[in-house]
Design brief:
The complex is a heterodimer of chains A (260) and B (428).
Chain A lengths: L1 H4 L4 H22 L5 E5 L3 H13 L3 E5 L2 H10 L4 E5 L1 E2 L2 E2 L1 H10 L4 E6 L4 H10 L3 E4 L4 H15 L1 H4 L2 E3 L2 E4 L4 E4 L2 E3 L3 H12 L5 E2 H9 L10 H16 L6 E4 L3 E4 L3
Parallel strand pairs in A: 1-2, 1-3, 3-6, 6-7
Antiparallel strand pairs in A: 4-5, 8-9, 9-10, 10-11, 12-14, 13-14
Helix pairs in contact in A: 4-5, 9-11
Chain B lengths: L2 H53 L12 E6 L1 H6 L3 E9 L4 E13 L4 E9 L1 H49 L16 H50 L6 H31 L7 E4 H11 L1 H6 L3 E6 L4 E4 L1 H17 L6 E6 L3 E7 L13 H25 L3 E7 L2 E7 L10
Parallel strand pairs in B: 6-8
Antiparallel strand pairs in B: 1-4, 2-3, 3-4, 5-7, 8-9, 9-11, 10-11
Helix pairs in contact in B: 1-3, 4-5, 5-9, 6-8, 8-9
Classes of the chains: A alpha/beta (260), B alpha+beta (428).
Chain lengths: 260, 428
């Protein structure tokens, strides 16, 4: 009786199978970016939690550790694409973890985070094999952009191009293409677009953009209208190339690359 | 000047003077004694002659020459002769040479006859004695000088060697090497006390330095980490969709204040690290290229304020300086020039092998066309920034013995860093 009352799903099952097959063969590889597994090592719990939340919002798979020993255990257990390591850990120096990561996988990108801005410390970490160095306090958007930059460098097969809503970016040679046509962007415009796309659907303030693009700290009372000029030029070029302009001005405070 | 030479500089003249004065004193003392003796001898001769004259009749006067010459004289003549002692030169015809004699001339009358008597004594011995004394004193002086010099140069050197070792060890002592001062043993009490004092002082200095170094690193970490937490939390909150523009502005303001605190803390730590002698490694850097690179980086900000940039940069100017401090120096001096400039203003940069000069137009407080209720806060922020930036520049210049000078001229602000302090300062 139960069997007779059940509807015939066979045709739906067949269509589902077909759909899944198409998705698997054609659509899925081009649309879904593999999840980046990130190791986050930070002894300050509140900062660790905030960073973890932010990075998970950015679709990273985050493994967090708040001690040197804990980080070592995680490195021994898992493979990571990127590691964010605080240099000043209570039970060890973060620089010592670089060697562990390099031994496990040379392709793991390593970003050292420190409260010190000393060039000597930066050089030491970079000499040991770190790929980047960030000083606290940093912008989360800057952190995100640095992570993506490190991934592109360490995994060129993943990062050689970035596709976002009809625009393809080639970071290695600062080229942007839309509708199979190259968009003639200056280096700064390219970096601006890349930064916005790296932080898509997030508010990026003008100060963050200036700091990222020119490494200049400015007071908010300084006039930053020059960034407005760069954004305006970029948007004009995108529209002229037939790409959709996703860059939105957010309350005159900053910009966002809106795709949702 | 070395200690030994300084000592000899005073010792030797003192010895020479003392020995010289002593010698002179000795010379005159002995001369007086000799003179007195000679006078006594003459008096003895006189007594002898008088006794002889009294004992013998005038016809039997003996010839007492050469030390006595006796002449018969009248009573009237005898009264005119006074007893005198004087030195006289007598020519010896046989030796064909004059000799110095001391003579006593007196008159004596017996019952029947008066005589004029001259008794003499040769002074050759007298002079020989004095010459011998003078020579001996001179030789003694020379010997003393030579012995003192040898003692100072060789023997005392060994006694002073712990002191010299202490000087060497103290001069090699460096706080940042974390190597304790090595005590120098010595049998001399004063040197042991000095060594003990130096040990105590260096230990105290090292402890204070380590404490300060630890505190600096601790402060950096303990301040920057909470600031990082606050900034990150605000960044997360800014992504909330339900925030109003006013709320976003307020949060951005808080975020901005966090950045200011962070930058001030970093500047303060940099100043402290310069004081602690952290930036020891110097490199010969092409300062002209560094300046040009820095101008490239700040090009946007300069154009933003429509600032006219005039540059006169001598190529190939090199400085021996830590790269991080060179960067901080240029960062601060340029950002001050840009930040405190007016819209449409001017910056003149001149770099030579002797100095770096920046002249920029400044804000005129009376020409603000858009008064803002935040104006006062703006000025306090910029003044704070100016102060910290100038402090960093001044600290770096002090470290490398550059002369840093600023001057306000009507509507211009002049900053000069002179690399060679020995040359007169030029503003132009």
């Amino acid at each position: 009786m139960l069997r007779r009352s059940l509807p015939d799903f066979s045709k739906y099952l067949t269509m589902c199978d077909l759909y899944l097959l198409c998705f698997a063969l054609y659509i899925w590889p081009n649309k879904i970016i593999p999840m980046v597994h990130l190791l986050l090592v930070e002894d300050e719990i509140s900062l660790l939690q905030v960073m973890q939340q932010y990075l998970e919002n950015e679709k990273y798979q985050v493994t967090a550790a708040d001690t040197f020993k804990g980080a070592r255990k995680e490195i021994a257990k898992n493979h990571f694409d990127v590691a964010l390591i605080d240099i000043n850990l209570p039970d060890g120096n973060g620089n010592s973890l670089i060697n562990d990561l390099k031994t496990q996988d040379d392709k793991t990108g390593i970003i050292i985070v420190s409260s010190d801005n000393l060039t000597d410390d930066k050089i030491r970490s970079l000499d040991l094999g770190a790929d980047d160095y960030l000083t606290k306090p940093f912008d989360l958007q800057e952190l995100n952009a640095r992570i993506r930059s490190v991934i592109r460098r360490k995994q060129p097969e993943v990062g050689h191009k970035i596709e976002a809503d009809g625009i393809t970016l080639f970071p290695n040679n600062y080229k942007a293409v839309a509708n199979d046509k190259e968009i003639g962007l200056t280096k700064k415009e390219f970096e601006l677009l890349l930064y916005l796309i790296s932080n898509k659907n997030r508010l990026v303030t003008k100060e963050m953009l200036v700091l990222h693009l020119w490494n200049i700290n400015i007071d908010s009372y300084d006039n930053v209208d020059f960034i407005y000029t760069h954004v305006k030029n970029l948007r004009k070029k995108l529209i002229a190339a037939g790409a959709k302009d996703h860059i939105k001005n957010m309350h005159g405070i900053g910009y966002s690359y809106v795709t949702e | 000047m070395k200690l030994v030479l300084a000592k000899l500089k005073y010792n030797l003249p003192a010895i020479i003077i003392v020995v010289g004065i002593g010698g002179i004193f000795l010379y005159y003392s002995i001369e007086r004694i000799l003179q007195h003796n000679e006078n006594e001898v003459l008096k003895l001769y006189k007594e002898s002659v008088i006794n002889m004259l009294n004992a013998h009749p005038p016809d039997e006067v003996m010839d007492e020459s050469p030390f006595a010459f006796i002449y018969q004289i009248s009573k009237q003549e005898a009264h005119t002769i006074r007893e005198t002692i004087k030195d006289t030169l007598i020519y010896d015809t046989a030796l064909k040479e004059s000799f110095l004699f001391r003579q006593l001339h007196f008159s004596h009358c017996t019952s029947s006859q008066c005589y004029s008597v001259i008794v003499r004594k040769s002074l050759v011995d007298h002079n020989q004695v004095l010459t011998a004394i003078f020579t001996d004193v001179f030789i003694i002086c020379l010997v003393v000088v030579a012995v003192i010099t040898l003692l100072n140069l060789y023997i005392f050197k060994r006694i002073w060697s712990p002191f010299h070792k202490m000087i060497r060890t103290v001069s090699e002592f460096q706080l940042d090497k974390d190597k304790a001062y090595e005590s120098i043993p010595s049998s001399i009490l004063e040197f042991r006390e000095l060594d003990k004092t130096i040990t105590v002082i260096t230990q105290k200095l090292q402890a204070e330095y380590n404490e300060l170094k630890f505190f600096t690193a601790y402060l950096t970490h303990e301040l920057q980490t909470p600031l990082a937490v606050m900034k990150a939390e605000i960044d997360l909150m800014l992504q909330e969709e339900k925030l109003s523009p006013e709320q976003i502005k307020r949060m951005l303001n808080i975020r901005h204040q966090i950045e200011i605190i962070s930058r001030f803390e970093q500047a303060a730590i940099l100043l402290k690290r310069i004081d602690l002698g952290k930036f020891k490694d110097e490199q010969t850097l092409n300062f002209s290229n560094l300046l040009l690179d820095k101008l490239d980086e700040t090009e946007e900000l300069i154009h933003l304020k429509s600032i006219q940039l005039k540059k006169e940069i001598t190529p190939g100017v090199t400085l021996s300086i830590h790269p991080e401090l060179a960067d901080a120096l240029l960062n601060n001096i340029l950002s001050n020039s840009i930040r405190h400039n007016i819209m449409g203003g001017e910056i003149q940069i001149k770099l030579t092998s002797r100095y770096l000069q920046l002249i920029n137009s400044t804000e005129k407080s009376s020409t603000r066309s858009n008064p803002d209720h935040n104006q006062h806060e703006n000025e306090s922020l910029t003044q704070r920034g100016l102060g910290v930036g100038l402090s960093i520049i001044a600290a770096i210049c002090k470290k490398y013995k550059f002369h840093f000078h600023t001057e306000k001229k009507q509507d211009q602000y002049v900053s000069i860093i002179q690399f060679d302090q020995s040359l007169p300062l030029h503003i132009g």
